[in-house]
Design a protein that fits this description.
single chain, mainly alpha, 3 domains, two-stranded antiparallel ribbon, 14 helices, elongated
């Protein structure tokens, strides 16, 4: 919507432009009457024309523009060649006219410069919020636009961060009910169980179901699982406890199990009975020629070959030692 006039506030010279040079005040008045500037205060950069209208040189006009930019009166984006007179939409009486404001908000959305869009959004948020719809003198319904909604489109507010729920342990949480947690470990490999869904009961229900005097091995498994839970809150507590209990029943000591759990957590590896066992004992050793297990394998192959229903072994087994 094109403007046909410009409003000059009485306090413009004493408060708005107080402290600025005469050239800056003159150029600011020229900007207010710039035909390309729309109702929201955004227009095209026309430095040579402004200099001619103000009877100044290009150098004097550029110096005045930099002074107005430093005083936060205007904003110029050289990339998009747009100028923004910051307080025009508030001081020009645009907000008091619903249809003029509607056109100004439509023009504001056509602004290209990101920096001017952000500054324009700040000015729109200083306007009153959407007014209640009314009726004109002719009886027609008047729908007031929402400048704050346009400001959010120009400069979307940061999306609120989801509230981080405090990690819930099986023993310390006072809440009731149940909670579905996802995963455990942080890796993305095939051994990771990040995508696994595990439902765990909360402390109140767990304590109610727990026996009064648990077996020592069960209590030790609970302590191990709790120690791992503190490192990896999003894990299956019952599953970790079951693995620890099985390891204890197989004769593994408490401290090696705890140290192995810490290493698995730090390496973002899944906790299974096999991974826990390998972490404690080390990887299995392959049989080499001369070992008892290697010779036992050769003897077993020879015995099977001597039987009537013998079927030839796969090539890879025959290559290990051939026939006896």
């Amino acid at each position: 919507m094109a403007r046909s006039e410009a409003r000059l506030q009485f306090g413009l010279w004493r408060t708005g432009l107080d402290g600025h040079t005469s050239h800056a005040k003159l150029v600011y008045a020229v900007l207010l009457t710039e035909p390309t500037i729309n109702q929201c205060g955004v227009g095209a950069v026309r430095t040579s024309r402004w200099a001619r209208d103000a009877s100044l040189t290009i150098v004097e006009t550029d110096k005045a523009l930099r002074e107005l930019i430093a005083g936060d009166k205007i904003l110029i984006d050289e990339d998009t060649e747009e100028v923004f007179v910051r307080t025009l939409i508030r001081n020009d009486g645009v907000a008091k006219q619903p249809y003029v404001l509607k056109g100004a908000l439509r023009e504001a959305l056509q602004t290209t410069s990101p920096s001017i869009r952000r500054s324009l959004a700040r000015e729109l948020r200083k306007l009153p919020p959407k007014q209640p719809d009314g009726v004109s003198k002719t009886g027609a319904k008047v729908v007031y636009p929402d400048p704050h909604a346009t400001a959010d489109r120009l400069d979307p507010p940061p999306s609120p961060k989801p509230t981080q729920k405090a990690p819930e342990t099986l023993f310390d949480s006072p809440q009731k009910g149940s909670e579905t947690l996802h995963g455990g470990g942080g890796g993305g490999g095939t051994s990771s169980y990040v995508a696994t869904q595990v439902e765990i009961t909360t402390a109140a229900r767990a304590e109610k179901r727990a026996p009064a005097n648990p077996r020592p091995i069960t209590k030790a498994a609970q302590d191990l699982a709790k120690a791992y839970y503190e490192l990896v809150p999003l894990c299956s507590f019952p599953g970790i406890m079951k693995i620890c209990k099985r390891a204890l029943e197989c004769g593994y000591e408490f401290e090696p199990i705890r140290a192995a759990l810490v290493r698995l957590a730090e390496a973002n590896r899944a906790v299974t009975f096999d991974s826990l066992r390998i972490e404690i004992d080390g990887p299995p050793v392959r049989a080499a020629p001369g070992d008892d297990r290697f010779r036992a394998g050769l003897a077993l192959a020879a015995r099977l070959e001597a039987e009537d229903d013998y079927r030839p072994a796969p090539p890879n087994l025959r290559a290990l030692g051939g026939t006896a």
